[in-house]
């Protein structure tokens, strides 16, 4: 493995995501079959599609969790095709926030510690204060010292949103953020996600199969069998 | 958001995250803590004890020896020239040692008679029971040992008879400063003035006594050059020389060997613990996969993950090591108390920094070696794993771990070899351990491969049991290594312990005579036999001429090797060190077999001949026709080797390395030694009394106490070995439990799914039983072979004992080990089986 390259602060270009001909194969199955996608800075976008259409895989590639073996990809000003695993981790750090369906909080840390961790990884001096503010903002000011196991599903997802947004990322990805929640709680979470995104001015990409949720975004991209089948402005 | 972020997580931040996670998930690292605690604790205790005894021998060398240098010779006093040479070095203290018998009325006690002059003791003080610190006893008086006081029923103020003299008991000995340097005693001591043995008629020409002269140097000087100088000045004197820095060479050798053996046992415990450490850390990291992946999603690099997990493992390893060191120091006084009668041990809590450092180094290196692979794997764990199936194993990054493992193993090997008293034994042990690990690793791989290739059974439960052994992420390799090591340790210990017990019983000779009698005058041999027969009819009496002498040189005439010129005696020539018992005989001694050459004819009158022990001849490269130069009573004489004999040492009677033709020694003043074997039961008390009366200058050694002492020594050795080995067993059990617990995590998922699909608890238990029974069966056979093989090496090669394991005990212990494995495996499944499937599903 090569040593992680130096990540220099770069001005965020007008496009938050610039993908051309992305190809991803897992084992013998080609998951993504040449994806072209440009997402403007500050835009909200929904990735729609049935199970197995490649939504989550595309998100994994766009967040640098997976590396495409074909095509070019520039995310938040960084050319992801030239970075190794550690380079991708550094590129995510502070620039990309990820909210997952199963929350994936660190079970051994309190809510406050969970939110402070990405700030600490960035080297932020005021990590704890900012984390506390962020939790206040998602309505969990009274749950700072609770462990994930002591929180409800909705509360856990709020912590995950706070954790993703605390570093003020340029890009926020949310993979089925309401998938594990009931309808009422889910609606509350979506409201919160959109409100916090607006305050931060970040680009938001939501992966969902919920068409109603997709309509809340400015743009809806639909995937089918590893390809973009439609790209429209939301109704 | 575009601030420059640190590329490498600062140590303080890494530590903060590590500590936060550790405080909540410490449970997973308990096995690391326990294994290091046990292993380091055992090594710390062994090292501290050994080093503390060595230090006692070093620092108390002058007191233990009773001087800076000691010269001893048998059956003569030192000449004026010899004494003058010693006198030039400093203050001289002279004296003699002999076996004797003292009596009080009808009560008789064999004693070690120590006659000393006014300068004794040159170092330290003799302490009496009444608290007085004294030197030489007053005129006409004696200090007596507690054993003598008890046996004769006398105390301070009473009187005892010694030969023709009556002596007043002036005090009972509490602590004799040079007791250890006097060597292994066969009887309690009586200390008298220097002239007493002569006045009592005990020391006459040919009597079996020893003169000891000690010197306290007048100035600061090294002892070794003095010894060399004395050897040069008096080459044929037959001096046995000792110095303050090797005051008790026998004890030092014993401590060296025992210490090294125990260190190896401790290292074995630590190796077993290492497997537990590797397994424990692996399963801990496995349980952290979600957290590791989540941290990577948040932007942590592989290096950050490595730093965080390394800090966690290192901090727990340090705590385990520190706790082990403290336990090692705390437990040492228990060991020193147990050994205080046998060896010089310090009081209180001895702290030996070097021994503790070595124990800590071993512990941390073992932890380093065994955690390198799982830590390297955790480093490479992909963030994408959050979105993938849970069965995906940790990435294989063994190449990254190869260097740390090689460096760690090299350092462990180097540390062990640097401090090894027997490098061959240590090297064999290290090589053997590595081979064993490799063998078990291959076996795990083989079992996995074989089961994978077997046809899939129709029964789904059997299919699951077999799949558990070979599916991705299966713990088969770790289980085989841990169970193999653990069960082998059980077998090893059972075989060693039962063999030692059997040796203790077998070695204490069945045919031992009841008494050894020294200094039977050669003109009263017949009368001695008659006296014995009168008071113990039917007793068997054997008498042999007894002299003392030292071998000065050996080899082919003209190309002789002088012992004084050898820096170190070649292996196997130990019996040639110093003065030894010599005898002469007309016929081949009983229990000896001639293996080469011819025995001399009766009334042989040619050049002096000698028959020597065949093992010594082999070790020295001697053959029939070669020559020995022997010093007897200070006179050097050359003798030709005429035959080699095989001696049966199991018969505890008169066994001499060197037997001369009668004409070689007969003219030297000497007495006879005798053995008395009362055939039925214990010897009648009147016999000892009558012998003391009829032969006042002779002395009797009772074999009963001597055998008891030997038995005690062997028992203590066996206890020390078992105590150290029990740590290995404890570590083995911890590893077994850890491996099974780690494997359980993977089983839980299957069990829950199978229950959802309708499998009963009984069926699931059978799946587990089937899987572990298969492993246990294979491993029982392997462990039996490995455990008994290593035990044989320890018993036969290392301790040179007979191979006498109690197979019933070995199989019983192996059976108990297997029951433990199966029992724990079953018990580990119970919580999952007791839970309702719906609840278990939620918890997955």
Automatic annotation (TrEMBL), chain A:
InterPro entries, alphabetized: AAA+_ATPase (IPR003593), ABC_transporter-like_ATP-bd (IPR003439), ABC_transporter-like_CS (IPR017871), ABC_transpr_LolD-like (IPR015854), MacB-like_ATP-bd (IPR017911), P-loop_NTPase (IPR027417)
Segments forming domain ABC transporter: 17-235
Keywords: ATP-binding, Nucleotide-binding, Transport
Pfam families: ABC_tran (PF00005)
CDD domains: ABC_MJ0796_LolCDE_FtsE
Domain of life the protein comes from: Bacteria
GO molecular function: ATP binding
Protein name: ATP-binding cassette domain-containing protein
From TrEMBL, chain B:
Start and end residues of each MacB-like periplasmic core domain: 33-231
InterPro entries: ABC3_permease_C (IPR003838), MacB_PCD (IPR025857), Membrane_comp_ABC_pdt (IPR038766)
Claim: Hydrolase is one of the keywords in the record: no
Location (main, coarse): membrane
Membrane topology: Multi-pass membrane protein
Stretches that traverse the bilayer: 261-285, 305-335, 355-380, 401-421, 427-447, 476-496, 719-743, 764-795, 807-833
Subcellular location, record wording: Cell membrane
Keywords carried by this UniProt record: Cell membrane, Membrane, Transmembrane, Transmembrane helix
Domain of life according to the entry: Bacteria
Ranges where the ABC3 transporter permease C-terminal domain occurs: 265-380, 724-835
Entry protein name: FtsX-like permease family protein
């Amino acid at each position: 493995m090569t040593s992680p390259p130096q990540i220099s602060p770069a001005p965020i270009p007008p496009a938050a995501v610039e993908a051309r001909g992305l190809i991803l194969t897992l084992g013998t199955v080609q998951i993504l079959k040449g994806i072209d996608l440009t997402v403007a800075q500050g835009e909200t976008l929904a990735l729609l599609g049935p199970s197995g259409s490649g939504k989550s895989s595309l998100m994994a590639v766009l967040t640098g969790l997976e590396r495409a073996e074909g095509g070019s990809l520039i995310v938040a000003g960084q050319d992801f095709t030239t970075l190794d695993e550690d380079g991708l981790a550094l590129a995510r750090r502070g620039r990309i926030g990820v909210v997952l369906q199963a929350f994936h909080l660190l079970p051994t840390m309190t809510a406050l510690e969970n939110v402070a961790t990405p700030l600490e990884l960035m080297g932020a001096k005021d990590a704890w204060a900012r984390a506390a503010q962020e939790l206040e903002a998602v309505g969990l000011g009274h749950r700072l010292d609770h462990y994930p196991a002591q929180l409800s599903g909705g509360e856990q997802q709020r912590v995950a949103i706070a954790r993703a947004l605390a570093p003020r990322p340029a890009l926020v990805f949310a993979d089925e953020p309401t998938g594990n929640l009931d309808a009422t709680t889910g609606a509350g979470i979506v409201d919160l996600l959109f409100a916090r995104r607006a305050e931060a001015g970040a680009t938001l990409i939501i992966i969902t199969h919920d068409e109603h949720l997709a309509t809340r975004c400015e743009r809806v991209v639909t995937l089918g069998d590893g390809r973009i089948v439609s790209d429209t402005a939301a109704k | 958001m575009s601030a420059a972020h640190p590329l490498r997580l600062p140590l303080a931040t890494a530590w903060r995250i590590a500590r936060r996670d550790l405080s909540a998930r410490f449970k997973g690292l308990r096995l690391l803590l326990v294994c290091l605690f046990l292993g380091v604790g055992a090594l710390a205790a062994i090292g501290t004890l050994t080093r503390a005894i060595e230090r006692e021998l070093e620092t108390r060398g002058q007191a233990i020896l009773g001087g800076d240098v000691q010269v001893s010779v048998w059956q003569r006093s030192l000449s004026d020239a010899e004494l003058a040479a010693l006198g030039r070095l400093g203050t001289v203290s002279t004296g003699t040692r002999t076996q004797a018998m003292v009596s009080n009325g009808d009560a008789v006690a064999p004693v070690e008679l120590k006659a000393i002059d006014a300068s004794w003791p040159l170092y330290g003080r003799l302490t009496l029971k009444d608290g007085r610190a004294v030197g030489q006893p007053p005129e006409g008086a004696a200090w007596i040992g507690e054993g003598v006081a008890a046996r004769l029923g006398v105390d301070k103020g009473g009187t005892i008879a010694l030969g023709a003299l009556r002596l007043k008991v002036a005090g009972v000995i509490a602590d004799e400063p040079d007791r250890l340097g006097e060597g292994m005693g066969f009887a309690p001591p009586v200390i008298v003035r220097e002239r007493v043995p002569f006045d009592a008629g005990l020391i006459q020409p040919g009597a079996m006594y020893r003169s000891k002269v000690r010197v306290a140097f007048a100035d600061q000087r090294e002892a070794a050059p003095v010894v060399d100088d004395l050897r040069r000045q008096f080459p044929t004197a037959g001096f046995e020389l000792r110095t303050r820095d090797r005051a008790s060479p026998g004890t030092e050798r014993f401590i060296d060997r025992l210490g090294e053996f125990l260190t190896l046992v401790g290292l074995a415990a630590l190796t077993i613990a290492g497997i537990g450490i590797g397994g424990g850390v692996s399963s801990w990291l496995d349980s952290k996969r979600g957290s590791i992946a989540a941290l990577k999603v948040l932007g942590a690099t592989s290096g950050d993950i490595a730093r965080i997990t390394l800090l966690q493992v290192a901090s727990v390893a340090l705590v385990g090591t520190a706790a082990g060191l403290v336990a090692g120091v705390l437990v040492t006084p228990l060991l020193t108390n147990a050994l205080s009668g046998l060896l010089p041990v310090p009081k209180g809590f001895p702290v030996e920094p070097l021994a503790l450092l070595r124990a800590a180094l071993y512990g941390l290196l073992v932890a380093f070696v065994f955690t390198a692979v799982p830590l390297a794997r955790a480093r490479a764990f992909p963030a994408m794993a959050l979105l993938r199936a849970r069965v995906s194993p940790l990435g294989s990054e063994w190449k990254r771990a190869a260097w740390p493992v090689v460096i760690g193993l090299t350092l462990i090997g180097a540390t062990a070899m640097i401090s090894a008293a027997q490098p061959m034994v240590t090297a064999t042990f290290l090589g053997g351990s590595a081979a064993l690990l490799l063998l078990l690793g291959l076996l795990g791989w083989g079992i996995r491969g074989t089961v994978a290739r077997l046809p899939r059974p129709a029964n789904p439960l059997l299919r699951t049991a077999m799949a558990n052994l070979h599916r991705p992420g299966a713990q088969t390799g770790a289980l085989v290594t841990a169970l193999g090591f653990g069960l082998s340790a059980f077998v090893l210990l059972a075989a060693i312990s039962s063999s030692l017990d059997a040796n203790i019983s077998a070695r204490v000779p069945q045919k031992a005579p009841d008494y050894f009698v020294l200094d039977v005058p050669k003109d009263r041999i017949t009368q001695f036999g008659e006296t014995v027969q009168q008071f113990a009819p039917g007793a068997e009496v054997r008498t042999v001429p007894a002299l003392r002498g030292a071998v000065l040189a050996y080899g082919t005439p003209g190309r002789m090797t002088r012992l004084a010129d050898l820096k170190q005696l070649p292996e196997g020539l130990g019996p040639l060190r110093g003065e030894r018992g010599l005898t002469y005989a007309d016929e081949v001694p009983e229990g000896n077999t001639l293996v080469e050459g011819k025995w001399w004819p009766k009334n042989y009158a040619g050049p002096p001949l000698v028959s020597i022990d065949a093992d010594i001849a082999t070790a020295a490269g001697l053959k029939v026709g070669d020559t020995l130069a022997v010093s007897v009573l200070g006179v050097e004489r050359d003798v030709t080797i005429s035959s080699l004999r095989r001696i049966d040492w199991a018969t505890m009677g008169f066994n001499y390395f060197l037997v001369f033709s009668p004409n070689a020694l007969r003219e030297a003043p000497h007495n006879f030694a005798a053995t008395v074997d009362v055939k039925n039961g214990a010897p009648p008390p009147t016999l000892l009394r009558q012998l003391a009366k009829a032969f006042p200058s002779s002395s009797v050694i009772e074999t009963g106490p001597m055998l008891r002492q030997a038995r005690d020594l062997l028992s203590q050795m066996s206890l020390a070995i078992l105590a150290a080995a029990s740590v290995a067993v404890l570590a083995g059990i911890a590893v077994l439990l850890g491996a099974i617990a780690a494997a359980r995590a993977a089983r839980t998922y299957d069990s829950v799914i199978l229950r959802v699909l309708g499998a009963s608890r009984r069926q699931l238990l059978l799946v587990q039983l089937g899987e572990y029974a298969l492993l246990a069966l294979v491993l029982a056979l392997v462990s039996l072979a490995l455990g008994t093989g290593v035990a044989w090496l320890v018993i036969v090669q290392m301790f040179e004992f007979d191979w006498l394991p109690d197979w019933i005990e070995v199989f019983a212990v192996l059976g108990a080990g297997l029951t433990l494995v199966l029992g724990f495996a079953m018990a580990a499944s119970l919580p999952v089986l007791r839970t309702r499937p719906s609840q278990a599903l939620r918890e997955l």
